[in-house]
Amino acid sequence: MAALPTDPADAFAELGRIKLGETGLDDVLQRVAELAKRALDTPVQVSVTLVRNGTGHTAAFTDDLARGLDERQYAQGRGPCLDAAASGDVLSVPDLAEEHRWPDWAERGHKAGVGSSVSVGLPIQDAVVGALNVYARTPHAFDDDDTITVLETFAAYAAVALANAHLYDSTATLAQQMQEAMASRAVIEQAKGIIMAERRCTPGEAFDILAKVSQDSNRKVRDVAQALVDRAAGAR
What we know:
This protein has a five-stranded antiparallel beta sheet, with helices on both faces. It has eight helices and five strands. The protein is of the alpha+beta class.
């Protein structure tokens, strides 16, 4: 049985109860898609497109029809969801039977029973862009400005979730890189200490020795240092 329509105000309140820091991005976007579907009077199917490094994928969808229409655009490299993602604009297709901007995609969608669509671009991030896509079986389903306003609100919430997730990923990556750098520095200092004890040389001379072995063996300084530390530990 299909879910009953939800008042947009109730849907927005439910969005506000999602704890972004405790819920994965895919789960948040799926909830956005489901609530957007239920908040409209017209029967629709909803998807969320994310584009990273020029490659699009559907991160959330309420029906295979929506995902299929998205994927047709990814295969062709063009279409309303990709253009909305790139520009951040709202792109409406009032009637797929009369659409000429993306004729092949529109023909496929019309044959599948889709009458109209709208894609709302998510605010652009550094590495990821996206769009909220809504498909209806009737033409001109999204001609009402109030409907677009509702969808823009859902898209804005999806954008917040995307921004938070991107920030978290960036912070986590930076933290991992710092940990790796600290570990590399520690093992290099250990190796320098071993060389200084064996060669009776200065710290600078010890590092020069590590650097030369690294260059001669085509290995990273850290890997050379780790091998030296491991060898010294095994000799004890």
